[in-house]
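Hey, I'm writing a tutorial for new members on how sequence and structure tokens pair up, and I'd like a real worked example in the thread rather than a made-up one. If someone can provide the structure for the chain below, I'll link this post from the tutorial.
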Amino acid sequence: MACADVDMDIHGDDEELSRAGCREPPRIRHYQATEFMPGTEGPLHDLLQKQPAVLGSLQVVSGLLSVGVGIIFAVTQEMVESLFTMFRVSQLTGALFIIAGVVSNLLFKYPELLAVSLMVNCGCIIVAVVAACLISVDLAHWTPDNDQHWKMELLTLCVLGLEVLLSVTLCFWFTKEKRAKSP
């Protein structure tokens, strides 16, 4: 079994140690933390723990899908055939949700955009409800001639429902955070 004759005491810089007549370099005292101190929390720490950027990214993707569907409708359907195409519902809602998603993603870097993001998401909800009403009117006037367009409008209505769900969730989180931060 190996053994060593080493002094285990802590010595200061000015003390000289000698072991078997050899001179050792001075040992330096240092402090090593045994417990980590919590870091300072950012302005939107609680909100950012919920990952609004993920929902913002989903808003951007669903907005891109809406814009794509709107372009397909604009190319394949006459302007007067449906309210969906006439008012460019899909392009409008898609663009708004892309903007809302980008602003939600920027909250991590720019916390002062919380109020802007809340307003944009509330605006998206209002526009989405109007768009859902227009799509519902089109679906009510369904005929066998426009069966393919009917399926696409139904898909758009489902994507719109997803977008509204994302915006409502973000608005809930944002208002909760805004109330917590206001005096």
